[in-house]
Structure formats: C-alpha cells, structure tokens
What does this fold into?
Amino acid sequence: MKRTVICSIALGFVSVAAMAQSGTNSPYSQYGIGILSDQSQGFNRGMNGLALGLRYGNQVNSLNPASYSAIDSLSMIFDVGLSGQITNFKEGNISRNAKNADFEYAVAAFRAFPKVGISVGLIPYTNIGYNYANSSRVGTSETTTTETHSGSGGIHQAYIGVGWNVFGGLSVGANFSYLWGSYDKTVSISSSDSYVNTMQRTYSASVSNYKLDFGLQWQQKVAKADWLTLGATVGIGHKLNADPQVTTTTSNSQTGVSSDSTFTVGNGLAVPMTYGVGLAWTHSDRLTIGVDYTLQQWGSVDIPETDAATGDYVLRSGLLKDRHKFTLGGEWVPNTTSLRFFDRVRYRIGASYATPYIKINGMDGPKEYSVSAGFGIPITNSWENRSFLNISGQWVRSESKAFVTENMFRINIGITFNERWFMKWKVE
It folds into this structure.
C-alpha cells in the first residue's frame, strides 16, 4: 500500500509538471529564448545550485549524470519541488512588484545494475512571461502613442539519464533529453488618434527536439575522513529544427481594413555548447564545500531579428554572448547518526555570479548576483527515516546600468521520497 501511494503521488506530480511552466514576470524574458532555468533540485537549491562535484546516494543530482552511479542499491528516490517568489522591478523612479508560485520539477532515480544508476525527470529549460506598456506624446500634440509588450511560454525538458561507476573513483554518465514547448511574443502600437493606423507584430515558435549532456566524476580519498570529487560536464550544442516566424498586422480603424505579412526563418533556434567543471570536498560525511564554473557558448548562436529597414525576419549574429557562471556553496550536518532530530538537519548556504547571455540594443543585458540558504529536514516517523523536506530561501539581483533592475526573493520547497524498494527479506 505504501508503494502504491508513493507511485500515485509521483504520477500525479509528473502529470501536473507536464502541463505547467515555471513562471516569470521579467521583461528580460522577451530576449533570446527566455530566462534560463538553473535546473537544480531541492537539496542543492539551498547551496544556490552547486552540483557538478556533488555525489550523494540519497539525492538526485540531474546536473551531473555521473552522480547517478552513487544511488544506493536499495533506494527508489523521487523528488518533487515548487517555488513561490516576489520580484521588485525598478527603472528610474518607477517601481513595481509581481508574484509567482509554480511547480518546478519532478525527478526520480534508482540503481538498475551493480555500479549503474538510472534517473528520469521533468525540468524547465527556459521561461517566458512578461506584460508591460510605454506611452508617449507625439511632438507637442495631445496625441499619445502606446507600445505594449507581452509574451508567454517556454521550453520544457524531459530526460532519462544513466550513470556508471567505471572503476574505483571514476564514474561517467549521460542525460538524453527531449525538449519541447512554444512561445508567443507580441508588440502592439496604438494611438489615441483614430486616424492613425495600429500595428501588431507577433513572434512565435514551437520546439520539439533532443538534447545531449555528458558528465564525469572522479572521487579520491585524500585523508582518513576527507574526500575530493572532481566533476565535469559537456552539453552538445545544435540546431533545434524550429521555424520561428513573425506576423505583422496593420489595421486602419477608419476603413476597417487590415493587412498581414508573415516571415519565417527556417531552423532558426539552437542550444549552445556548454561546459562545466566543479570541485567538492567532503569531511566525515558531515561537511561538504564545493565550487562550480559553467560556460554556455551563446555567443556562437545566431537568433532571428526583424530588420528595421526592410521588415524582413532574418538570422543575426552578435545578439547573444557567452554566459559564465560561478557558484560557491556548502552543506553541514552536525551528526548523521545521532538520535537527536536537530543533529540530523542539513544546513546549506551558497552564492553565485552569472554574466548575461543577451544583448539589448547592442548593450549587455543584466548581470545576476544570488545567494541562498536552506535546510534539509529529515522526515521521521514509525515507517520513514530516509526522506527529506528541503526548504531554502534565495535572493537574486539582476541589474544593468541602462535597463530595469530586478530584485527577487524566492522560497523553494522540495520533498525527497527515499523508499527501500529493493530489499530482500530473509527468514531464519
């Protein structure tokens, strides 16, 4: 009965996640292919997404598939997460707040064969969501022109991954993912003067393609109670076989006549080559400290843009740039074997810095600074002592001197169910 309940919960969450898209209200999500998700799970969100050198047997670490080989042979792990956030947007003397609450991810992992772990999951890849308007007067007249921007959508990622402990401390792994999703971005220009034509331009695309990521971990004992783990990842960049298009509609309110024109760019979206390296030090299974560096080569990816002179929709280079991200984090648990509850709580902290991957009117987009702290709270009752409730708070600041500054506070909640599904009982 216990397994049936857990499976039902899992299937329910996966069904919800398949239909949900993590939300954002950021105007920066209109550029590139949207706001990039950090794709971390509940346990490492408290460490601000630290992942590449982490190797746990009781958590799912989808950011380095080599870690799946560490999954305990008796465990079936299922992890689900959600978040709630409030964001302040500030430009000059204007300030606005927005709220979001979203289902974030659903992942699972288990040991399939000796030294081989398997993971499956559903996580966001990009998010798009914004709605704002600007109004201005035309010269010295009373006529005002309003330009409205809105957009929604994003790309989802479903994966199946495998991790293999080749020998000793060396493990390798791979995630085979399916990317799908769509977006619609609209720019409309209207006027208070009924004699002036209105114009609406809608950008849209639908994605359905694959993604490949590979990982490696090398773990070495350096002292009686100390371990070092080196992690590395590579994500393969390629075209997404998507055909983004733009439709421009011009309407005359006096005559009621409108005209449409549509331009399509064949195979106009892509994901970049991505490289990551991380190092983690663990002492006595109580203290873990690590650092990650990730490079996404967006600078070599072309993206469609409307030509201001001709109105054509064409691929352009130089609209994106390479993204560098640095993360430092750690976890401390007083005593993993203690009978005292608070001795088994896991305390986490982390910080990150990321450069922008978008350019706006030839200028760099916002840099991102973030810090987080959280807890891994053991779930203990008469039948369960291996699962965790992961709670963390995260502050993210995205700023650019020429554009909007965003300050976001997010609460992340994740539940890791860890079941003993593969134990064989022996009666003597």
Summary: The CA atoms of residues 355 and 367 lie 5 Å apart. Confidence is low (pLDDT under 50) at residues 4-9, 15-22.
